[in-house]
Amino acid sequence: MNEGNRLATKLKELRKAHSYTQDYVAETLGIVRQTYSHYETGKRTPSSEMLYKLAGLYEISIDDLMYLVISLDRNTYFDAPAPSEESVEIEKYLEFTNSPSNVNKLKHLNNLEKELLFYFERISIEDKKEIIEFTKIKARKK
Questions:
Q1: DSSP 19
Q2: Largest Cα–Cα separation, the chain
Q3: What is the set of domains in the chain, with CATH numbers?
């Protein structure tokens, strides 16, 4: 059964279970009876606004109205994927920039300077010296 027919069947079942007439439901929704009739036959699909009104009329969730129920095998477990290298790095950067111990040090820096400092603090002394020498060369070129 396709989704449109499933919804149409559900609407008809709900209406009958509440002993409502098509005229009553249509009037409640603010539409003509023929339009509502087309919802129940599957000739038309209700707009999202109408779906919310229908769910409200029957006091059910949109998921229940649309049969959006996911059945899960409770015996099957899925592990979350391991965080990517980039997401771990972003997390560390955010921790660095939001750390109370770094607030004073970072408050007057722009984003590039903060990023430079973040990576600079993670490298060896030798690499730091190399980067400083490289930066001096670059600065002299200006």
A1: T
A2: 86
A3: 3-66 (1.10.260.40), 85-141 (no CATH)
Are 131 and 119 in contact by the 8 Å Cβ rule? The answer is no
Cα gap 84→120, rounded to integer Å: 22
Provide the percentage of residues in the chain whose pLDDT is more than 70: 87
The whole-angstrom distance between residue 1's C-alpha and the CA centroid of its chain comes to: 29
The reported pTM is 0.47
Per DSSP, 24 falls in state: H
Q: How far apart are CA 66 and CA 125, in angstroms?
A: 62
Write out pLDDT tens, residues 126-139.
999 999 999 999 99
End-to-end CA distance of the chain: 71
Tell me if 131 sits within 8 A of 120, measured CB to CB.
yes
